[in-house]
Amino acid sequence: MKKNVEIFGKINTLEGYSYLLLLFVAMPLKYMLGIAIATKIVGMIHGILFLAFLYYLYAAWEEAQWSLKENITFFIASIIPFGTFFTKSKIAAYEA
Hints:
Elements: H1 3-33, H2 37-64, H3 68-78, H4 83-86, H5 88-95
Helix pairs in contact: 1-2, 1-5
């Protein structure tokens, strides 16, 4: 069992959800309704999850011996809305 890859898969999903919450809930609350605290709270949670994502991306890369191309793909998918959900199956293939 590849522990870092498994943790990376979970962080990947959580980071994806937090990004969507930031973009589609917190930012509209801030800019349409003037509730600035929404972006502060969700933004901080997303930031922490993104840092964890980067750490486990590196750890999983070393553990699973991914190619640089795959590693870059996972990173780029993390900055595109809904991108992390398209990489879930690829990550799951490495967990076994």
